[in-house]
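Exercise 7. Given the encoded structure of a 375-residue chain, write a plausible sequence.
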């Protein structure tokens, strides 16, 4: 399925299309505030620091008596040593509308990410649970895309909604934290808000991990989001050592891939610009850093496809082991040998693993379900 590698481009196009109306709405919303003009004056003419500046409302400008700054009595202008400062002020309804638009951004962007994860996991699961893998090609990707759009949009919407709610709450706390930062005597509140932000960040990371594995369970068995989350949790619990080991190795490999792409792209861009445009540019560092950021974003998007495929194959491996007898399994070549060696280690080991929460009856149901679908 070579075409699966262009999935990040499709997602980027979808996000760009969404950004057009969203950006227009945000521009209108940002310009709907009322302009307020204020005079900013210095208490000390010899001190231009921020601490020495005060704001006087333009409607209440009067003559100064401290001798350091002269304020004109004209409500439309400022006197010597002062300058006019204009800013937007928004009504409460406008602020709520801005918060809603921010929530829409979080939900839509995460929904596009969830659609991509489902397409990759379904494509990988269809490849894994196919005996004749030669027949798997680009058609499998399009079939997975159709299945996602027809049957699993609700799963993607619900999972992305949870992440969007957490992100919106984090944004609200960040806004409160920024408002309180300029007020004296708010150190304790600042510390409490930082702790809350840290906790919300951890919750967001945990939910993204659960969502990712839930989408994989949906791809394999067609579960709804809530059931898929529960089944993914207990599957990881039953195979915590194996999944942790593979996840660490895969994360390290993906990290090496990201670093390789970023470093080679940045070094290549630096020497290219130095050779061709050194006389035309004032400096190369800004352009080089821009290339570095773009290459990192590109590597992050494309590596996500490989990371999702690795996680899906791992869960397919575990599901294959739990549902089928050795002679009926779909694991090819070296992967089948890994299953056999893992079985021997589990048989001879005295380590106590967490028991399956769904019991033998549920595993039998899985076996019958898998026989019906994948046979």
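Solution.
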């Amino acid at each position: 399925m070579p075409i699966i590698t262009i999935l990040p481009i499709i997602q980027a196009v979808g996000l760009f299309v969404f950004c057009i109306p969203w950006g227009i709405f945000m521009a209108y919303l940002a310009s709907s505030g009322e302009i307020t003009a204020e005079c900013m004056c210095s208490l000390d003419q010899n001190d231009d620091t921020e601490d020495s500046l005060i704001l006087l409302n333009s409607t209440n400008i009067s003559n100064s008596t401290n001798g350091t700054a002269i304020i004109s009595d004209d409500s439309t202008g400022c006197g010597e040593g002062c300058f006019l400062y204009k800013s937007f002020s928004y009504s409460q309804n406008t602020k709520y509308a801005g918060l809603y638009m921010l929530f829409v951004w979080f939900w839509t962007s995460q929904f596009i990410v969830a659609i991509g994860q489902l397409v990759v996991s379904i494509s990988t699961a269809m490849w894994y649970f196919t005996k004749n893998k030669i027949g798997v090609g680009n058609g499998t990707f399009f079939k997975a895309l159709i299945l996602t759009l027809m049957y699993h949009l609700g799963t993607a919407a619900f999972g992305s909604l949870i992440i969007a709610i957490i992100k919106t709450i984090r944004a609200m706390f960040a806004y409160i934290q920024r408002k309180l930062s300029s007020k004296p005597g708010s150190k304790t509140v600042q510390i409490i808000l930082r702790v809350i932000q840290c906790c919300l960040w951890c919750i967001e990371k945990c939910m993204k991990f659960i969502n990712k594995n839930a989408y994989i369970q949906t791809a394999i068995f067609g579960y709804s989001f809530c059931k898929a989350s529960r089944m993914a949790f207990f599957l990881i619990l039953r195979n915590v050592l194996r999944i942790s080991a593979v996840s660490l190795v895969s994360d390290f490999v993906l990290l090496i891939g990201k670093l390789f792409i970023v470093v080679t792209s940045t070094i290549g861009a630096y020497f290219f610009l130095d050779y061709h445009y050194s006389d035309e540019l004032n400096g190369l560092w800004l352009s080089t850093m821009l290339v570095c950021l773009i290459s990192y974003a590109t590597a992050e998007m494309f590596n996500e496809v490989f990371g999702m495929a690795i996680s899906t194959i791992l869960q397919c491996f575990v599901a294959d082991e739990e549902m089928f007898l050795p002679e009926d399994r779909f694991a090819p070549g070296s992967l089948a040998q890994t299953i056999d060696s893992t079985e021997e280690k589990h048989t001879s080991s005295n380590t106590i693993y967490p028991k399956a929460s769904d019991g033998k009856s549920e595993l039998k149901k899985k076996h019958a379900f898998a026989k019906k679908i994948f046979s």
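Remark. The beta strands are 34-42, 53-57, 82-89. Students should compare their own answers with the one above.
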